[in-house]
Amino acid sequence: MASRPKILLVDDEEAIRFGVSRYLSKKGYEVEGASDLSEAKGKVAAERYDAILLDLTLPDGNGIDWIPELREARADLAIVVITGTGDVPVAVDAMRRGADNLLTKPVNMADLDVYLQKSLELESLRRRDRTRKRLAKKGEPCFGSSAIMEDVVGLATTAGESDSAVMIEGETGTGKGVLARWIHDQSARSSEPFIEVNCSSLRGELLASELFGHTKGAFTSAVEDREGLVEVADGGTLFLDEIGDMDMAVQAQFLKVIEEKQYRRLGEVRIRRSEFRLICATNHDLDKQVEEGTFRKDLYFRIKVFPINLPPLRERAEDIAELVAYLMNDLGRGDVEISDPIMKLLERYSWPGNIREMRNVLERAILLARGNPLGPEHFPGLGGGVAFVKSPGGDTWDLDGLENEHITRALDKFGGDVRKAARALGISRATLYRKLKKIREE
């Protein structure tokens, strides 16, 4: 919740709106007023409020009939009913329809403050309960324990503590979407929606419609009014995956949304608001796209406030064993043993498709094994063109010897230059130093 809770006071008496607004403003609330249901509904559609103070007898209808609609749209919204009718049936009906509290006119201001605080506390409890239930249904993701990933998780933790725009950069399959959701779950918006849009799957008008929504007849296939995902993300996090694929025209529209927190549905004149937190991801070089003129420089600077680079799997082979165990468990086969030779095979592979490819490879291996122990034959193509060799005079596959020989040849080729050898082998220098130490000890 914001430091100054935002309240909408719906009452047709101007004197009451003035008096209540003045009192609550001094108590630290931000108060807006509406004189009837129509005006109130328009404000709720355009703004996000923490609580509604609602009179029941209004010029264009009974406020009690609006309560179920409000509660359906915002399950955690604090609703306090204020009415001149003090009989018990009205109070019971209002509470049954979703109101948190009811006060009768003339309103005692001190009582109003207390009731409002209690309703806002109830709102906060609802949010936390929703978060707890949601997080209980899913396990914590695995990022690995390598030094490079500890740095990434540290940055992600900092990002979760702020509300700044985050840019996650990394190759396809590295888990950018998983990291984005984790950042959201660590943030103050965790009880609100996490809305994901893949900018590479939609183009032009279709992407604009997906983001901003449209009215019936806005374009040929617009057969009904539809809210956009910017609207759905109000109060939560909007995650734009592969933002580098966003059309220039949509980039211009979205830049305005970021700057003003305002937007229009396609085919609509009315201005709407959405207070969302932005996280973007890309596997492209946005700096290069800016230079080439295919990505707006002004948008680039607005979305890259807090950059996080997610390294490819080949640069953190020390995380592979942990990730394999996590993925096998996620596939429901945590009981399947991964032998040392198989693990060395997995660690030696360069994983061009990263974690996404690893999950597919493990799932395929489980299917190919048909319940039998996993062997090298269940991982076709993982040798990357390198053949297996047998130990001299033995029947076992000497993977250690093959790896050691491969490393030695790489170092010889680059004259002992560890940096160049590590790059050619597709591993980090730290990993190469670790393997060299092991070779010397042997």
Descriptive account of the structure:
The protein has helices at 14-26, 37-46, 67-73, 88-97, 109-136, 147-160, 176-186, 204-212, 229-232, 248-260, 286-292, 297-303, 320-330, 340-348, 354-369, 399-413, 418-425, 429-441; strands spanning 6-10, 30-34, 51-55, 57-58, 61-62, 78-83, 101-104, 166-169, 194-198, 213-214, 226-227, 237-241, 262-263, 272-273, 277-282, 306-309. It is an alpha/beta fold and 442 residues long. The chain has four domains: 6-134, Rossmann fold; 147-311, 3-Layer(aba) Sandwich (Rossmann fold); 312-385, Helicase, Ruva Protein, domain 3 (Orthogonal Bundle); 387-442, Arc Repressor Mutant, subunit A. It has a five-stranded parallel sheet, with helices on both faces. It has a five-stranded parallel sheet with strand order 9-12-15-8-16. Helix 1 links the parallel strand 1 (6-10) and strand 2. Helix 6 (147-160) packs across helix 7. The chain starts with 5 loop residues before the first strand and ends with a helix. 32% of the residues are buried.
Distance between the termini: 59 Å
Can you tell me the number of structural domains? 4
Helix content: 40-55%
In CATH's first tier, which class of the largest domain applies?
Alpha Beta
* Total helical segments: 18
State Rg. 29 Å
Backbone shape: elongated
List segments where confidence is low: pLDDT < 50 over at least 5 consecutive residues: 384-397
Q: Estimate the strand proportion.
A: 5-15%
CATH architecture of the largest domain: 3-Layer(aba) Sandwich
Which class best fits the helix and strand makeup? alpha/beta
Provide a brief overview of the structure.
With about 450 residues, the chain is of the alpha/beta class. It contains 18 helices and 16 strands. Strands 2-1-3-6-7 form a 5-stranded parallel sheet, with helices on both faces. Strands 9-12-15-8-16 form a 5-stranded parallel sheet. Strands 4-5 form a two-stranded antiparallel sheet.
